[in-house]
Amino acid sequence: MKKKLWLFSLLAMMLIILAACNIDEDTEKPEASTGDDNGEEVQGTIKIGVLASLTGALEAYGKQTKQGFELGLEYATGGTMEVAGKKIEVVFEDTETKPEVAVQKATKLLEEDEVDFIVGSSSSGDTLAVLPLAEEYEKIMIVEPAVADSITGSEFNPFIFRTARNSSQDAVAGAAAIAGPGVKIATFAPDYSFGWDGVAAFKKAAEDLGAEVVLEEFADPAATDFTSNLQKIIEEDPDYLYVVWAGANSPWNQIADLKLQEKGIKISTGAPDIAALSVMEPLIGMEGFTVYYHTLPDNEVNDWLVKEHKERFNGEVPDLFTPGGMSAAIAIVEALKKSEGDADGNNLISIMEGMSFETPKGTMTFREEDHQAMQSLYSIKLEKQDGVPYPVPVLIRELTPDETEPPINN
After folding, report:
1. What is the pTM of this model?
2. 193-224: b (≥16 Cβ within 10 Å) or e
3. What are the start-end ranges of the E strands in 255-344?
4. How is the chain split into domains, by residue range?
5. Does 168-290+378-399 match 45-165+296-375 at the fold level?
6. Which segments constitute the Leucine-binding protein domain (predicted)?
7. What is the CATH code for 168-290+378-399?
8. What are the backbone angles phi and psi of residue 362, rounded to the nearest 5°?
9. 148, 338, 341, 408: which is deepest, by most CB within 10 A?
10. 365 has which bridge partners?
11. What is the DSSP pairing of strand 356-359 with strand 362-366?
12. Residue range 76-135, pLDDT digits in tens
């Protein structure tokens, strides 16, 4: 009898222990969800390295690109900063507008940060120095806002895609504003790749329209005194002076001081960023072109950009290169949507060739042959407007992507 009671007690204890284990298993807390708000599981990270001139002469351009890129990622991902189930992480590096520094920073991004994409940079010189690294590491590089034709021309490699317009697109727009049979034009530009390519492209476009380029004058991009250059232009007595320029040390004040327009030489150029427009009071009435001014494009993406930019940056409007930064970000997100999150450079090439996407400047399309984005530019006239402390680019007409299509030079 005692033996039976002992066996019964042992069996009861075992049942209690098993029941307790089952209760623990049933009440165990689930692991934290790794999904996004839409229930999609987040697996891995897309890392993007952005090269920009965050200090130095082109600091304003770098700031515009950075702000535009951050807004572009937010717009393209609906605020989630995720695409195809992957989180997006961005690393910004300052090239200081020095090609050797650009190479160092790009190498750091590729080797230490192990980025999936490179974006940049503010300077054509910096960008040209970095291009070979994109091919060596087989990573897609979105070029923004550098414009030298050689980037998608003689120095092209298949990993390069450019959302920025190139010098030839600028040239077509610039020539359309002033060139014609019998018109004599002098050019003035900085003495480096941006200036050389810009003048060469403009000269071809102007001569195709019957104009004659009578003088090509180049100046040290770091100079502050352009008197000797401008005197040569005055002596040549052209009908127009077409200026290709970028950076803070612009020639506009000296052009005004030397009274070129009073001497019968009309000035034409691409309307620059707002800071440069503020010293272009003497050029009110000038007809030229621009890459972007916030009131010119009429589309939903630009409406969103202007609204959000004002709200986040103390009422400031997006500037010349802000939409370019945004376009680069949108291009990356759209490519990753199509690839379902595959960031392999070799696989993305065929996906991105011919790809169209919506930007603040309207629809852009990467041309298959050289990966240059076909895009709109704007024929404008500088006018004085009440309440605006600088000459305002007013739309004459939008130059369509077909009209501004540059030659294939690669």
Report:
1. 0.83
2. bbbbbbbbbbbbbbeeeebebebbbbbebeee
3. 266-271, 287-290
4. 45-165+296-375, 168-290+378-399
5. yes
6. 45-383
7. 3.40.50.2300
8. 95, -160
9. 148
10. 356, 374
11. antiparallel
12. 999 999 999 999 999 999 999 999 999 999 999 999 999 999 999 999 999 999 999 999
